[in-house]
Amino acid sequence: APTMPGSGYSDIQIDRRIVNYPKDDVLPILKAENVNEFFVDGFSLGTAHALSIARYFGVGGSGYDDHQCVGVGLNCPYLSTPICAEFQMRCDADDMWLVRHNDTQKWSAAWNYALWDLLFYVPYISPPAKFFGDVWPKWAQACPEQVEQLIRDQTRTVVRGSQGQGCEAMHYTTQSMWGFDPREVNVKNVCVWYAQDDCLSPGAGSPPEHGEWLAKMFQNKQEEADGSSVAGESQKVRLSIRAENVGRGHMTYAPSKGAAYTVEEETIPQTLLQMVKQTKEK
């Protein structure tokens, strides 16, 4: 999977917009790897990027003629500020106390960078994944190997320094002003999995009403396709929705062996693969 700008070995993009991510970052990879058809899934912040990719490479999108996104998976998704304002929902940006319309190059954004220096470089408290067990204890107790994996991932996130996170994770324009409307997404296979007990503390997850809104949006698209007299079987929308409350909050659908909510290691990628296969068999 491509690493987002400012993370790992990817370059920083000052004041980037998620709407540009498919064309600027994903399209060159698809061309280089000669990928014509694919599906995408995202977790948390990654769901905004997954929606943007599905919009750009989905039916009717700018990149659809050369590279088709045939499915999108959303694991504990969140919504942009404009959608939250339109439908009067809690906004993840508000939970994260982001500075509105902040300029990452001004002195007022210095706390963005100082915070991430603290989170990733101060001994005994870094990286923050060490304390995820305090936020989601049931998940950490059942899946200690996932905690260790997240610690390794977060260590890699700042391999080139924490400045990229200052430009990304705490930046209002990037996080909340996506530059596109998720209602413009048109793909044939969709997973929307959200947790009803998500976002129990500020900034520690995605409000469940965001997942509910997205699920309803895709249900409407499914009903429109099912009711169309001109839509063929290949144009129908296949949809998987899960809204569970198993005490694991934001980490509910992290894959693990033997968890009560999984069946034979069921994951979003596995579910999408099955859905795409069914689409091709019709």
Automatic annotation (TrEMBL):
Origin superkingdom: Eukaryota
Protein name: AB hydrolase-1 domain-containing protein
